Amino acid sequence: MPGCKTCRCHTDYKMDITMAMQPIVDLRTRQVYAYEALVRGTQGQSAGQVLAQVTEDSKYYFDQLCRTTAIEMMAGLSDTAKLSINFLPNAIYDPQTCLRKTLEAADKFNLAKERIIFEVSEQEHLTDHEKLIDIANTYNKNGFKVALDDFGAGYAGIEVLHRFQPDIIKLDISLINGIAQDPVKQAVVDGICLMARRLGIDLVVEGVETLTDYRCLCDLGVYLMQGYLFAKPVIATLPNPSFPAQPAEHPE
């Protein structure tokens, strides 16, 4: 097993970051399902500006810093809310070793592991699927849930899903924007909904911004949603979502 030196946690690279929280809502209960922590700069820099500063040598430190920052913030904001954290699989050398600081932070700030979801983006282009499976299994064994983010945007979504089944799939915004006017998107999302139900995987759709798309997704049976229609991300705050009126036939 590689030691910390191999994992580069000895780096003295510094970066000032904070987190903006955005709710994922559950339309069955009209409550918040979880809050996703989205990285921001302390001077108001966007996620893109922050990520542009991350180098090959600093990606491990950055990944660990995002995790611990999000955990510390959530611990100070809520005693019960679930926290969804993005992570960089390509920054992980050995899953259990690289999970150490996360476990220490969860223990230090008294945030139950059952409240933490780790999101891995399909756009990370992780070609070593065995490594991804090992990471996911290690996280599950340690009490965390795993979500496959941006599903449908990458090059190997179905292949990855065939190799391991995450707890959650998050559909990419490209499949959601304008879905009400796009029969092809509707057919694709309907098929993914069926697949997720059969596999026992929770399905979250991102980028819900309009009432027409919201109603279309409700008709398709989607009940976990995230997007500006409900709430925008807010730094160091858990925003209260607004819920549109339910369509006549709401998801069950």
UniProtKB/TrEMBL annotation:
GO terms for molecular function: cyclic-guanylate-specific phosphodiesterase activity. PROSITE patterns: EAL. InterPro entries: Cyclic-di-GMP_PDE-like, EAL_dom, EAL_sf. SMART domains: EAL. Residues 1-247 form the EAL domain. PANTHER family: BLUE LIGHT- AND TEMPERATURE-REGULATED ANTIREPRESSOR BLUF, CYCLIC DI-GMP PHOSPHODIESTERASE PDEF. This is Diguanylate phosphodiesterase. The lineage of its organism: Bacteria, Pseudomonadati, Pseudomonadota, Gammaproteobacteria, Alteromonadales.
